[in-house]
Structures are given as structure tokens and as C-alpha cells.
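Is nicotinamide-adenine-dinucleotide placement plausible here? Inputs below.
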Amino acid sequence: MTALLRAVIVGAGSRGNRVFAELMATNDVGFEVAGVVEPDAARRAAFCHRHAVPDAQAFATLEGFLAAPRFSDIVFVCSPDRTHFAICRDLSEAGHAIMLEKPAATTLAECVELLEIQRRCGNPVFIAHGLRYAPFFRAVKALLDGGSLGTIRHIQLTEQVGHWHFAHSYVRGQWRRADQAAPIVLTKTSHDLDILQWLVDEPVASVTSHGSLSAFRADQAPEGATARCVDCPLQDTCLYSATRFYLEERPEWPYDVVLEGGPDTQERRRRAVEHGPYGHCVWLNDNDVCDNQVVLLEFASGKLATFSMHAQTADNTRDLRIFCDLGEIRGDLRRGELVVSRFSGHKDDLRPEVIELPPTTDSHGGGDLELLRALHEHLTEAKHADIMTSLERSLASHVMAFLAEESRLADNVKIRVSPVLIPAALRQPVGEALPEPLPMPELDALG
Ligand SMILES: NC(=O)c1ccc[n+]([C@@H]2O[C@H](COP(=O)([O-])OP(=O)(O)OC[C@H]3O[C@@H](n4cnc5c(N)ncnc54)[C@H](O)[C@@H]3O)[C@@H](O)[C@H]2O)c1
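Reply from A.M.:
I modeled the complex. C-alpha cells:
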């Protein structure tokens, strides 16, 4: 029988409640929901009711949890980005194992400090970069590591965010402003940079990025648009009308985010659209994060990877092409399509081989569920050291994201990466003692 690990969820919102706690409750993945830290009383009560969490194991603050007798094996930190640093620091100092939602922190200095704290405290800290665990990316990695396609030369990865998803989260939602959240290349796409680093498996030599807020801005607004959709003459036809989107009684994410965890009534939805952040016109808001960005990564041996993030897409998926010396890989994460074409040396002689993948329903290709499975097996049976997204490994993606943003803001300059900047931890097997303290990035070198 699987040993049950007792999990505490910090932040019972979309990720903590709807994703991780629900996956734990509805799948045999070896975790039981043992407690919660959530400042919103109504959310906390609903969470405790759903997961039979006793009052003594439900807290409004982290301080309350830390002061109580220990009752858990791991803490899932799913609170807003800007709280991650302090929460992870305090949990580490109290010796807790942690699964920390990405991004680990919202500045490079805090990321580096978290790593120092974790090394000093010695507690396991993982980042919820769920894509590495998805069957799709594990199959891609196995193909590359198998060696039959030869050397990788070039990778193209595109994140098609989906026009509706972008409008919800990055124009109206909590990640819309870099000064209140962080640049989108970190908050949305640290996943993708992590995947590219993992697939190529060598240090990054330079980072260059182009991008801007090109569509969701005032000079692109249709004539007659008003600041709030409820007053807008275009609300019945506009693609992004908040009244059409959020007033439909759809109980699932993202439509229900406007309810803030409270009861689903038409009155509450209407009030949210009239007065809350999700009722703003997508062209006349205060958002500033890029809706169109490209990152070019050059790796130590000359391999190239381009990563593109686009808002204006029909689908919400990731599209991948990898070009190697002996063949190429093409794939679409959400559709679960993965095709390998090995070179024949002849014209028009294509023999694509379709790789079968298990069906998945979520936008991470099943990665969240597989993350839980792998995490449990890692903690209890020391498996999966090859994929585990430890804090050390995950920080490489964060460093790339900060450098990409720096490049973009500095007129797309190419930033050379010193070998010490992206730590040697990239190659460090998770759970293995480090031979030497890892060289830390010279923060001054980042400007
Ligand atoms: N891994 C992924 O693919 C992925 C996807 C989406 C979001 N995220 C990340 O997950 C985190 C949570 O996102 P979300 O969409 O669930 O947000 P959310 O707003 O739905 O939920 C956050 C919850 O945290 C609570 N909270 C606020 N301050 C807190 C504190 N100090 N201590 C404890 N709880 C606190 C809020 O009341 C809320 O219930 C964010 O960091 C986000 O960037 C990761």
C-alpha cells in the first residue's frame, strides 16, 4: 500500500485548491490533504469542508501554522508570487519539505537568497514546473537521450497562450503588470525556459529577447470602446467582452475566478464585472506585460533555441520542433501529438513515426498529476532524480528569464552568460550532497 504523505496547502486558490488538493483527493497519488493556510476565511472554510481538515490544522497565517505542533510531511506553497520568498524562507528555516509554485521569487536577488537559505537549512525544495513530468515532454527527452536522432542543432518552442487566457490572466488578472507581479517571461514562461534547459542539457551561453505589448493597449482599441465592459456599446459583439465572458454561469476556471471563492450567484458575478478588475476593457486597462515575445538562447556548444510566447492564438498549447542531425521531432502538447521523422538521405522519403501518448485533459499535458506521482516516489523511494525540478535546477530558468527581460528592455542586446551565472547545479542530481558550495551569480554583473 502507498505510504500517505500529509500535505499542507498554503494558498487555497486556483492552484492550491482546484489543482493540487483536488488531484490529491481524487487520485491515488500518495498524498492526503492534511491542512491549509489561507487568509480568506470563506475560502478556508470551504477548503476545510471539502477535505475534512480539522480546525486545529487550518490557519489564516503562516505564523499560526509554524507555531502549531508539526502534523505534515510537505507544504505546497500556492500563494501569490510576491509572497513566495518570505513563505519559502520561513518554511525552510523551520525545516519543512516544500513544493513551491513558480516563480520561486520575483527578483533574482531573492531567488539566489532562497537557494542560500535552502542550502543552509538542507530541506528539500521543489518548484512546480509541471511540464517536465508531462508524458509528452518525458517522451521527447527519452527520444533525445536515446541518441538515435544524433546531436540537437535547433529547437523551436512556442507557447500559444490563448487569446481568452491572456486577456483573463495577463490583461485583467494578477499578472498584468510587471511592477506588481514580475515580467511575463518569468511569471508565465519559466516553465518553457526550464524545459529548453532540460532538453538541451548544457549551459546557456547567451540570451537575447525581443517583445512588447503590441495588441492589448489603448491605441488598438476599437472606436467607441469604454473603460468598463458594462458601459460599452460594443459589449454584445466584442471578442473580449467581460459581460459575455464572466456572466455566463460557467462554474469552471477561468470563468469563476471573479467569484473569489465565494458562492456562485448572478448578482456576485455582475458586481465583479461592474466593479472588479475583470470588468475592464482589454484595451483601456493598466496592463503592461508583453503579449508578444521571443527569446533566443545560444547554448555552450552552439545549439540554438528560440522560444516564442504569443497572446493572439486560438488554442492554449505548446508547439515544439526539434531539429537534430539524423531526424526531427514535431509535437503539440495539448493535442498530445508527437511525431518523429528520421532522415532517409533521399528526396520525399518521409517516414514519420507517431509516438503514442496517454490522453490528458489539462493544459500542462497531465504534468500536474504526474508531478505529484513523481514527487511521492522521489520522497519515499528516491526515484526520478533525473526529472525532479529542485530549486537549484529550476533557478537556471529564472536566471534566463531575468536576463531575457534585461535584454528586451535594453533594445534587444545579446547578453553573454558567464559560466558561473547559471549555476553548476543544473547538473546536480537532486538529493545528492554537493561537493562544494556552488558558485553564486555575481549580481553586479547583471546590472
Ligand atoms: N505551475 C503552474 O503552471 C502555475 C499556473 C498558474 C499559477 N501558478 C502560480 O501559482 C500561484 C497561485 O496562483 P493561483 O492562480 O492559484 O492564485 P489564486 O489567486 O487563485 O490563489 C492564491 C491564494 O493564496 C491566498 N493567499 C494570499 N496571500 C497569502 C498568504 N500570505 N499566505 C497564504 N495564502 C495567501 C489567496 O487568498 C488565494 O486564495 C502563483 O504563484 C502563480 O503564479 C503556477
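Short version: The longest strand covers residues 152-160.
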